[in-house]
Amino acid sequence: MTVLALDFETANERRDSACAVGLAWIADGRVIRRESHLIRPPEMRFAPGNIRVHGILPANVADKPGFGAVMAPYLDDLARGLILAHNASFDIGVLRAGLARAGLPVPDLSYLCTVQVARRVFPAPEGCGLGKVARRLGIRFEHHDAGEDAYACAEIALAAMREREAADVHGLAATIGLPITRATGGPAQPRRDPGGISGRAMAAFPAASAALSFTMRGSTGNRYHVAFEERPGGPQLRCTCTAGRYGMRCRHVKALEVGDITDLLSDNASDVVLLARMLGAKARAVGAA
């Protein structure tokens, strides 16, 4: 049976916002293959806290494929094999949510959490976070890089197998009394349009748009104000920076249009999500006219 470690990084608090994935296959007591990819999330909304953890910016994934395209080559191994993940409930949740969001069937999955493995085989008062366990075992890797984290997860499982003299991961699970978790999948769901908005929300847009304004940080630290304006040719964002004053779509406007809050100074990130949806809905309405 295929055994592979899996790790995701997400753009924000949502499980269906994966922006990177790492995978590492193990066989014959060693890591035999590694893969890592950046992913364009369905909504380009990156929470500052997530960026601080993994360092991935919207610009890094703007031209990358979506979840379904990235994960398609690995679904057979994931569905038929045994998945290892450090804090597996998170990574399995991201996998299932990402597939559902992409309109793809969610396969039955079997997985083992290496946090639980480490607590039984390598306990320590400081805890069993990935970085802490790897440091105790002498595993060198770059934490919060999805590919590197998947590799470290695989190496932790291999170290536990050696420690308990288990022939394979299934034998390790039996030796330490940790059952393999099995999650039932489901059929493909209708693909959700991240820009789709109900009629009630669309009706509220004219009133909401009047209050949409944002404070953005410039490249030299200056503060600029971006406001939403309804114009005869359609909705526009106007910025007070030099380019904006000349009627150009500056980088601050372009960032807000795709939900990028990296340089947002005002405390209204939820309005950026509303703005991106509103612009998307209006663009579709214009295209259908």
Helix percentage:
40-55%
CATH topology of the largest domain: Nucleotidyltransferase, domain 5
What's the domain count?
2
Mean pLDDT: 86
Structural class, judged by helices and strands? alpha+beta
Distance from first to last alpha carbon = 54 Å
The CATH architecture designation of the largest domain is 2-Layer Sandwich
Could you name the ranges where pLDDT drops below 50 across 5 or more consecutive residues? Answer: 193-209
* Outline type: elongated
Name of the CATH class of the largest domain: Alpha Beta
Total DSSP helices = 13
Description:
This protein has helices at 48-54, 58-61, 67-71, 75-80, 88-101, 114-121, 130-137, 146-163, 169-176, 199-209, 242-245, 251-257, 269-288, and strands at 3-10, 18-27, 30-38, 82-85, 109-113, 181-183, 213-217, 223-231, 234-239. It folds into 2 domains: 3-183, Ribonuclease H-like superfamily/Ribonuclease H (Nucleotidyltransferase, domain 5), CATH 3.30.420; 199-288, no CATH class. The protein contains 13 helices and 9 strands. By secondary structure, it is α+β, with helices and mostly antiparallel strands. Helix 6 runs parallel beside helix 8 (146-163) and helix 7 (130-137) packs across helix 8 (146-163). A hairpin with a 5-residue loop joins strand 7 (213-217) and strand 8 (223-231). The N and C termini lie far apart (54 Å). The strands form 2 sheets. The protein has a 6-stranded mixed sheet. One of its GO terms (molecular function) is 3'-5' exonuclease activity. Keywords: Metal-binding, Zinc, Zinc-finger.
